[in-house]
Specification:
There is one protein chain. The chain has about 260 residues and is of the alpha/beta class. The protein contains four helices and eleven strands, in the order βββααααββββββββ. The chain has one domain. Strands 2, 3, 4, 5, 6, 7 and 8 form a seven-stranded mixed β-sheet that branches. A two-stranded parallel sheet has the order 1-9. A two-stranded parallel sheet has the order 10-11. It is globular and about 55 Å long.
Length: about 260
């Protein structure tokens, strides 16, 4: 069994790999995604599909197009930036945030109190726990725009997104074992203007779902840790779900479920 981790306060749940139905021998340095559904995914940010922009209520076509591109950059910085993935300082993501949110993000980065820790806003593997196999991350994601409002009823443009990021990893400094890890995120980015004609501001909104598969089940510090042992760390139970199935029921906060191979 390969356990999947969840991050306190950031993920809705975690999953556990069920029986290794795929031939693990196909996970090689030269073809780390062979035999996985992710093999058909696009590479990197190309996997985040940007739809045709159309006006949305108070926001023009140009606004929507700009918001889509900003959302794409934010997703790339949060889940594809190499420095961030390997446990470094997530400067690329911080640069994409509104100055007000950036200040809060950096102040609480790696906070000892996990309810405050913002490390879980991005995908970071614990320093020294992993290295990427090759330069490819497989990605499948989509964006959609809708009209929204803030808590005071002022108009906002919301870019809803969901994406799967599949990483091929191995222990740092070693050639094996090679494993695949998936991060799934479903959330939104919020855009608004302080006044007509002002620049479009953006905010990283709350996650609806955020979970990982192929990682240790518990994270005490917001970092993910790939499970190389296949033994897990907390146990999962119940129905075995498909990690690639959008219809699977979301897990409860802190719950470890069971998923098929990644």
């Amino acid at each position: 069994m390969i356990m999947v981790g969840c991050l306190a306060g950031a993920l809705t749940g975690c999953g556990v790999l069920g029986e290794l139905t795929a031939d693990q021998a196909v996970i090689t340095a030269s073809q780390p995604f062979r035999g996985s559904p992710s093999e058909k995914f696009a590479e990197g940010v190309d996997g985040i599909v940007v739809p045709e922009a159309r006006p949305v209520k108070h926001f023009s076509t140009r606004d929507v197009r700009s918001a889509f591109l900003t959302s794409r950059r934010m997703l790339r910085a949060a889940h594809l930036d190499r420095q961030t993935l390997l446990g470094g300082r997530p400067d690329a993501f911080a640069e994409q945030l509104d100055p007000q949110q950036r200040k809060d993000f950096l102040r609480n980065l790696d906070h000892k109190v996990q309810d405050k820790n913002t490390r879980a806003w991005v995908t970071s593997f614990a320093p020294g726990s992993a290295e990427l196999v090759g330069d490819v991350v497989k990605v499948q994601g989509k964006l959609a725009a809708e009209s929204g409002a803030d808590e005071n009823g002022r108009p906002e443009l919301w870019v809803n997104y969901e994406a799967r990021f599949v990483y091929a990893l191995r222990p740092a400094g070693k050639h094996s074992p090679i494993v695949r890890v998936m991060v799934f995120v479903k959330a939104r980015h919020e855009f608004w203007r302080d006044e007509p004609g002002a620049r479009l501001r953006n905010w990283d909104g709350e996650s609806t779902e955020f979970w990982s598969a192929g990682t240790e089940c518990d994270s005490p510090d917001g970092f993910l840790r790939p499970d190389y042992t296949g033994e897990g760390g907390g146990g999962g139970g119940g129905q075995v779900d498909d990690a690639y199935d959008d219809k699977a029921a979301p897990l409860k906060d802190g719950e470890c479920g069971t998923v098929d191979e990644i």
